[in-house]
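Ticket #4471: structure export looks truncated?
Reporter: QA, pipeline team
Priority: medium

Steps to reproduce: submit the single chain below to the structure queue and open the exported record.
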Amino acid sequence: MPKTSTEERAWIAEAIRRVDADANRSADTHMHVVPIPVPGIDLYLKDESVHPTGSLKHRLARSLFMYALCNGWIGEKSTVIEASSGSTAVSEAYFARLIDLPFVAVMPASTSTEKIALIEFYGGRCHLVDDPGTVYDEARRLATECGGHYMDQFTYAERATDWRGHNNIAESIFEQLSAEPHPCPSWIVVGAGTGGTSATIGRFVRYRRFDTRVAVADPENSAFYAGWESDRSDVTTDTPSRIEGIGRMRIEPSFVGGVIDDMVQVPDAASVAAMRWISAILGRTVGPSTGTNVWASLQLIGQMRDAGEEGSVVTLLCDGGERYSHTYYDDTWLAEHELDITPYADALAEFEKTGVLPTP
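Actual output as written to the record:
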C-alpha cells in the first residue's frame, strides 16, 4: 500500500475538522413527552428530525464519514457511493458536499421523490434500480468502475459509532431523562434498517449496567424478526419492506441480535395509522418508521400495564412527514398498495379514550 503523502494527510485532517465541526454546531435533539392515558407509565419521543439533514441518519452518516476518513478509505479525489433507501443517502450527500467530494446514491426506484430531491439538493446523484435486492452489488460495481469508495452502511453502521458514549444517541437519551419521574427507561424502542442504532443502544445499556431493555420494531416483509427468532443470519425474504428506512430483505451485517431483548412485528397498516395518529398529537407530520416505533411502544406499554409495572418508554421520531406527502399521507397511494389503516386508526382512538389498545 502506498505511503500517505503530506498533502493527503493535510486534506484528511481538514476533512475530519469539517465533519467534527458539524457535531459541534449541532445542539442535542429534543425529547417530547407524549400524553397517554396510562397512569404510572410515560412515553417519550426523541426527535431526530431536527438534525441538519432532517433524520436519525445524520448521526450515522457523520460517523461513517469519520470512520472512513480515519481509516484512510476516502481521499481528496474519492467518489463516495452508498446503497440506501433514502434518508442515509440524504445525510451522506450533505457530508460529501461538506468535504467537497462527489456522491452517488444507489436506491430502489420506489424511493420517495422528496428524498431524491433532497439528495440532489445536497449535490448528490441518484442511481435508481428496479430490484431493491440489487442495491448492494450495484453500489460495489459503481465504486469499482470509478475507483471510488462504497461506504456500505449495512456493514459498518454498528462499528462506526462509539457505543460507549461520546454523546451518542444512547448517552443522550439517559442524560435527557435524568430529571424525569422514571429516569432509567423500562424500554427503548427502535426500528432496524442497518441495525446500527439498536446495536449502539443495546451495547450502551449493558456497558453502563442499566436495567433498560431494548426492543426492535420490525415491519412486514423484513428478515430481521425471523432471523432473531431463529438465531440465524441467513434468513431472507422475497419482498421489500413497504416502510421506508426500516426492514430489510436480508439480515444485515450490522444487526446485532444479541443486544436485543425483544422484537415486535408491526403490520404496515398499523405503522401508517400510528404515524398519522402521533402526527395529530404533535401538531406536525412524522415519517412511517416513527409510526412503526410508536405502535410497538404502545404494545409494550400494554404489557407493562397488565403486569402492574410503572416506568417510561422511549422511542425515536426518525424523520419528518414532509418526505412522504405523496405516499403514506396520500389515501389513493394507500389504496393502491392495499393498506387499510381504518381498523388500526380505530384501535388508536380507543386507546386515547381508555388507555387500552385493542387488537384490530
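Status: closed, not a bug. The export was complete when the record was re-opened. Leaving a note from the reviewer for reference: DSSP finds 13 helices and ten strands in the chain.
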